[in-house]
Write a structure and sequence with these properties.
This protein is α/β, with parallel strands linked by helices. The chain has a domain of about 325 residues: Amidase signature (AS) domain (Amidase signature (AS) enzymes), CATH 3.90.1300. The chain is built from 15 helices and eleven strands. It has an eleven-stranded mixed beta sheet with strand order 1-3-2-4-6-5-10-11-9-7-8, sandwiched between helices. β2, α4 and β3 form a beta-alpha-beta unit. The structure holds glutamine (GLN). Glutamine binds next to loops.
Length: about 475
């Protein structure tokens, strides 16, 4: 019997393709087969690129036969969140307003995956313009959690997280503005990395809140997250906020965690945190300790204001970034309009309710007379939140925290209460405001069999520290995998 390539890691697949143990086409077909069985329930994809995936897989195989060296992701099927531009393919941001918008160029991260011989399987579902925590804000469909179809996969990158959890792809890209990689990773029981701001070029990522947005990978092993970052990370002249330093190479698996100083933030173990998650995080910290790490309490006193500051800053930037969707340049236009004014109005009516709410919040916060009271104040809070992390990282190398306050919730549970939905990111948002590196890894299952996530946070450009801690944890406590 031949191997089931949908159960293998990206690293293992790339190695097997390079050595000729399998072909990129066989790997692509295995994953497309898995899409056929799992996708009718999971609904992770807005578009499955079957023909082009097989075509690029065959191109990888031809390259190998011609004796040319293959890249780090040779034949690895990758799913892309549908806010990343892939040349020639529709990019919708799960919004009616971008329906019909075909990308004219590749995002830098996408281009680097191509250059590494990855194979694109499809574009994944998200909350419209990455605003949300459940995929319920998608204009097109809801993605279900592969562990329990009655529950959300998290969001906004819920499609990418679910695709990896359901073994439709070993690797996916998402974007994280306030938690949109780490929260769905936690809900779907996979690894999700939000790199340091500036680590991965944002060129070709459709902007939500430019000072917070960061592209990152989903995978089922920590090594795969490191592998993906080594490919997509690094300086890009096309993004002025891209940091001028190389992405870390995938290191060797750590033997232990001797010398690693772990901090537990007092303020993250609050009322409202699900007791099973609190217990799972504390148990995970004990595992880190047993591997040689030392643990102490740290304080992030301003983190309790982070959510409020985020919901000023992110909508403010969004209101500016989304001003370009006026019916003239991209995607949808309402052609029944009689005047220019009406074109704008009728076209922008295509935004969904959450996007409209953000645009109104942001426009209000930036308007004269309110700017100082809201936007400027939120920016000051942001500086204080970042300062808390800087102070903590003088004493510890990595902070261990819950990824989310609750396990995956049911559809409809939070749709009537935007603030309840916003609270999904209470533990992830501080790292976006500070711009540091953060990863969510599975740390167990709840009593009802739902995945729980551990968040590890390191200082700016501390991804290697995250990978070291996360890989050691993973080999001591192998991640639960989905049956079926
Ligand atoms: N859920 C948060 C929001 O709705 C974060 C989204 C994200 O990270 N893109 O803004």
């Amino acid at each position: 019997m031949s191997a089931d390539w949908t159960r293998e890691s990206a690293a293992r697949i790339a190695d097997a393709v390079r050595r000729g143990e399998t072909s990129a086409e066989e790997v692509a077909r295995a994953h497309l087969g898995r899409v056929e069985t799992a996708e009718p329930t999971v609904r992770a994809f807005l578009a499955v690129l079957k023909d082009s995936a097989l075509e690029s897989a065959r191109a990888v195989d031809a390259k190998r036969r011609a004796g040319r060296p293959l890249g780090a992701l040779a034949g690895v099927p990758v799913a892309l969140k549908d806010n990343l531009q892939l040349e020639g393919v529709e990019t919708t941001c799960a919004s009616r307003i971008l329906k019909g918008h075909v990308a004219a160029y590749d995002a830098t991260a996408v281009r680097r995956l191509k250059d590494a011989d990855a194979v694109f399987l499809g574009k994944t579902n998200l909350d419209e313009f990455a605003m949300g925590s459940s995929t319920e804000n998608s204009a097109f469909q809801k993605t279900t959690n592969p562990w329990d179809p009655a529950r959300v996969p998290g969001g906004s990158s819920g499609g990418s997280a679910a695709a990896v959890a359901a073994r439709m792809a070993p690797l996916a890209l998402g974007s994280d503005t306030g938690g949109s990689i780490r929260q769905p990773a936690s809900f779907c029981g996979v690894v999700g990395l939000k790199p340091t701001y500036g680590r991965v070029s944002r060129y070709g990522l459709i902007a939500f809140a430019s000072s917070l947005d960061q592209i990152g990978p989903f995978s089922r092993t920590v090594e795969d997250a490191a592998l993906a970052l080594s490919v997509v990370g690094g300086h890009d002249p096309l993004d002025t906020t891209s940091a001028d330093r190389p992405a870390p190479a995938v290191g060797a698996a750590p033997k232990d965690l001797k010398g690693l100083r772990v901090g537990l933030p007092r303020e993250y173990f609050i009322e409202g945190l699900d007791p099973e998650i609190a217990a799972a995080v504390r148990a995970a910290v004990d595992v880190l300790k047993s591997l040689g790490a030392t643990v102490r309490e740290v304080s992030l006193p301003h983190s309790k204001y982070a959510l409020a500051a985020y919901y000023i800053i992110a909508p403010s930037e969004a209101s500016s970034n989304l001003a370009r969707y006026d019916g003239i340049r991209y995607g949808f236009v309402d052609r029944s309009a009689a005047s220019l004014e009406e074109v704008y109005e009728a076209t922008r009516a295509a935004f969904g309710p959450e996007v409209k709410r953000r645009i109104m919040l942001g426009t209000y916060a930036l308007s004269s007379g309110y700017y100082d009271a809201y936007y400027a104040k939120a920016q000051r809070v942001r500086t204080l939140v970042a300062g808390d992390f800087k102070a903590a990282f003088r004493d510890v190398d990595v902070i261990a925290a819950p990824a989310t306050p609750t396990p995956p919730f049911r559809f409809g549970e939070k749709t009537d209460d935007p603030v309840a939905m916003y609270l999904s990111d209470v533990f992830t948002i501080p790292s976006n405001l500070a711009g540091n590196a953060s990863i969510s890894i599975p740390c167990g299952l709840s009593s009802s069999g739902l995945p729980l996530g551990l968040q590890l946070i390191a200082d700016h450009f501390g991804e290697e520290t995250l990978f070291r801690a996360a890989r050691a944890f993973e080999s001591a406590r192998p991640f639960p995998s989905l049956n079926g």
